[in-house]
């Protein structure tokens, strides 16, 4: 197993940051072209939308779940997992070890595996656990991981629903205040502008931050579950004593054609260098 396969660094997902920053730049550029930025800076509106959204989230979900969701949000900005191609290469390395030295030799090889899920599966095999039990244990862990991911996604989806609602509440508050001063026509325009700013904040937060983050977390969850499904299939194939070449072809079926082709090209280039 190469050092590149053993080490899985944190890869910054620049697309998430670019999306939020560029979105804000375009919105505020539009504001500058058509008006004044200072008109859109309203502290009471921010407090109503942000404070109301966070408060409603705490009402809807347990405190522990909300705090976990904010930790999970970091996955939208960084990807700590290895690529599927690297995982397949690691499994093939384990398969070659098992074929040459036996399943018990995997115990030492497991020390070089950084992924806890893969390491756990290797140790189950080394301990001689029944294949069906191995599958059940690993798939149960997968199911619970998916449920945890859904909790985090659901919280951000809820915040995406709450923020426009609190924006509307802020607008109603502004309209009520405006109606109190209808006897002074000069205040109607400015009061209406302030009232609508709250809706602006709520809609912006929902559609640029909360809902996109929920979708990004869904994508991260699907990618992680897919990688772990590859691990489960690979581990069971190793335990069954299948040929490493057959295991490789079986696991490649989980990959999109483009990724499969890239993996094949990389393997051919590595074989050419070794030759």
General description of the model:
It is a single chain. The protein has 275 residues and is mainly α. The chain has one domain (10-274). It is built from 11 helices and 2 strands. Strands 1-2 form a two-stranded antiparallel sheet. The longest helix has 52 residues, at 188-239. It is elongated, with a radius of gyration of 26 Å.
Query: Which percent range fits the helix content?
Result: over 70%
User: Which spans of ≥5 residues are poorly predicted at pLDDT below 50?
Assistant: 1-8
Number of domain modules: 1
Q: What overall form do the CA principal axes indicate?
A: elongated
Major beta sheet, specifics? 2 strands, antiparallel
Terminal CA distance: 18 Å
Query: How many distinct helices?
Result: 11
Helix and strand element order: HEHHHEHHHHHHH
What does the average pLDDT come to? Answer: 84
Question: What integer value in Å does the Rg equal?
Answer: 26 Å
- Overall number of strands: 2
